[in-house]
Amino acid sequence: MQELQVNKENCFSVLMAVYKKEQPLFFKEALRSVFEQSLIPNEVVLVKDGPLTEELEQIIVDFSSKNEQLKVITLEKNQGLGEALRIGLNACSFDLVARMDSDDICKPYRFEKQIAFLKEHKEITIVGSWIEEFSDCKEEIEAIRELPQEDKQLKIFMKWRNPFNHMTVMFRKKDILAVGGYQPFYLLEDYYLWNRLANANYYFANIGESLLWARGGYTMLERRGGWKYVVSESKLLKFMYRSGRINIVEFGANLMMKSIIRLIGKHLRHTIYTFFLRKKVTKTSVSV
C-alpha cells in the first residue's frame, strides 16, 4: 500500500460538505471511514455549509487535530450543496477527486479500487460504484442499488435515471471544470453535471460492486418527495430535451413517471423503490 501512497499519480482529494442538520454520530462515522482506508487520501476538503452545531464543530476539531489532511472551508451562510461543492472543488489540490457524503460510510478499500481503475482506464472521466442501503445498522442491508458499468449503457440509462450514486464517484477535476463544474440545481446538482459531461462526450464507468454503505430508509424517502423535486426535475428534463439527450416522448414519459413518484406518499414510494428500483437483498448479495 505504501508504494501507492507515495506515487504522485495516485494522489487525490476527497470532497465533502456538511451543514447544521447533520447527525453528529453519522458525520463522525463518515469521516472515520474516509481516514481508515487502505489508501489514505492526500487531502480531505470539508466545506462547512453555513453555521454548524457545537457538536459538529467539535467533531471537526477532533479530526483536524489527528489528521493533517483535513482542509476546512467555512461558508458564512448556507449556500446549498451545489454551491458548497463548487467552492470545495476549486479548493481541491489534486486532479483526482472523490466525493463523499457526510452521513454515509465508505468500505475500507473504496479509494484504492477507484484509483487503480482510473489509473488503468485513463479515458474515463468519472467512476462510481454500487451501494448497499441501510437505515439503522450497516450490517442490516435493506437494498442494493446496482447500476450499469459501461459508458454506452450508462448514457442510455441516464435518460431515465441518475447513472451514478453521487456519494461514490471519483472523477478528474480538470474535466469537471471544463463543463462548468458543480452548479446550484435544487436537489439534482449531480445529475445536471453528469448530463453536461455526457453532452461533452466524456466517458463514464461504474465498478460492479458496492464500495459504500448508504443511509436509506423512510427518512431518505421523505427527502425525495414533494413539489420542489417535481419542479427541479422538470427543469432538468427540459435541459436534457433541448440538448438532444432525450426526445419529446421520453420527456413526457419521464415527467409523468417522476412526478407521480415524488407526489405519492412515502410508504408507497418506499414500496416502489424497494421492489422496482433496487435489487432485493439476499445473504449472498451483501459484501463487506
TrEMBL record:
GO MF entries: glycosyltransferase activity
All residue ranges annotated as the Glycosyltransferase 2-like domain in the record: 13-175
Keyword Glycosyltransferase on entry: yes
InterPro entries for this protein: Glyco_trans_2-like, Glycosyltransf_2, Nucleotide-diphossugar_trans
Keyword Transferase: yes
Family, similarity comment: Belongs to the glycosyltransferase 2 family.
PANTHER family named among the record's database cross-references: GLYCOSYLTRANSFERASE, GLYCOSYLTRANSFERASE EPSE-RELATED
Protein name stated in the entry: Glycosyltransferase
Organism: Butyricimonas virosa
